[in-house]
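Changelog entry

Holo records now carry the ligand SMILES as an explicit input line rather than a separate metadata file. Below, a converted record for pyridoxal-5'-phosphate, shown in the new format.
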Amino acid sequence: MNPEMKPPVTDMPAEEFRRHGHRLVDWIADYLQHSERYPVVAQVKPGDIRKALPRQAPEQPEDLTVALDDFERVILPGVTHWNHPRFLAYFAITGSGPGILGDLLGGALNVNAMVWKTGPAATELEEVVVGWLRQMLGLPEEFFGIIMDTASVSTLCALHAARERLGLSVREKGMGAGPRICVYCSDQAHSSVEKACITLGIGQEGVRAIAHDAEYRMDPTALEAAIQDDVRNGLRPCAVVATLGTTSSGSVDPVKEIAEIAARHALWLHVDAAYAGPAAILPEKRALFSGWERADSVVLNPHKWLFTPFDFSAFYTRDPQTLRAAFSLVPPVYLTTKEGDQVHNYMEYGIQLGRRFRALKLWFVLRYFGQEGVRQALRYHIELAQQFAALVDADPDWERMAPVHFSLVCFRARPRGVPEDRLDDLNAALLEDINASGQAFLSQTKLRGNLTIRLAIGHLRTSSQDLTAVWELLREGAARIVAR
Ligand SMILES: *Cc1c(COP(=O)(O)O)cnc(C)c1O
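Structure line, unchanged by the conversion:
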């Protein structure tokens, strides 16, 4: 080695890091405090941001100050603000100060927790944090937990494990061998179930969309009938997915009855509680989840309604042996470890080899707010939703479209004198106007064939004043459209 050789490039010196870091943290603190200053929905057209940026990376180094300026000038106008207190569309992905700081620290450590050895603390903090959360949710102790990126991937892993448990050797032989497999979910289930079946080679034709009842819950009688039908036709029922808190209306499948049916037919029961799962932390909401403790697997997203910045999906299974059998390979030599069964090597329980140190952010969130703070925040959101629903119910020109179990309200304008066949256009125009105004962001669904407005509460900064203002916007907007 030539002792004269110096690295031509070094990382940012500590002093400079400190300077930019402080500026950035100050910016973030102001942004979080005043996220309502920005239009909720980015007021840009497709291509606007791309056009404002150079086609090539800079040849020579630039001062990061310039990049930070460009961030404010070019990037920020193209941001739709999920942190805005009137972001009420989809399911608000809710971050929080402690969660952001946890994420920052995770980035700094840059640990890859593929096996215990490569991240002992990351692995064990993950065990501890998913264990804390499991206790808060009231799930039994035998549930093994792992952090995934999204509910979509958690459900994919669940269905892969479900198929592995059938013992059809699909893992070894591929899809060619064996009978056709079926997966059951309600016709209100999230598209990630269908996507998982497409990915796994079960195919769209292997997905049975079971009818729902008047409250958008899976009809267990129809489920039983569909399973019997498939068995008669020589198909192989594999898994049923119950949704607790559907994306469209927040409905709750009767998981107790579904668990009975799943047990009778030896099906894997996967519970998708991606959005509503955190509500199980509240004793007064636990009854809605009754039966989920019998599931083979459960997914919920702290990045949806537990103040943890995206991404963080908590996946639990009572059958980690099967999950591991589904994914584990004899590790290549360079990943062989000597700790054996004393430790979890999380790479064996999912698709990814490399895994981020995600546990830090939920750890900070739970410590900062405490279980009591979390309960209060969830209760407040549910109370806000109930009050908003009461406004809708009290007004003869509006109609509520689904029961409010959690923090999602589904409703539509139905002004007296407007014919039924004009209502979809009216509500679509209303949504368009409000979202274009930058003052609030709401999304839509179809319920009983009718265009329905969804208002989902999940942000720590959303207040009753925000919802009063949104209610006024809606009423004024509807009146204006009726007048034209
Ligand atoms: C949002 C949602 C999903 C998908 O969540 P990702 O983490 O984005 O994959 C799945 N199921 C339900 C019920 C959801 O609401």
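Spot-checked after migration. The longest helix spans residues 359-394. The two ends are 81 Å apart (CA to CA).
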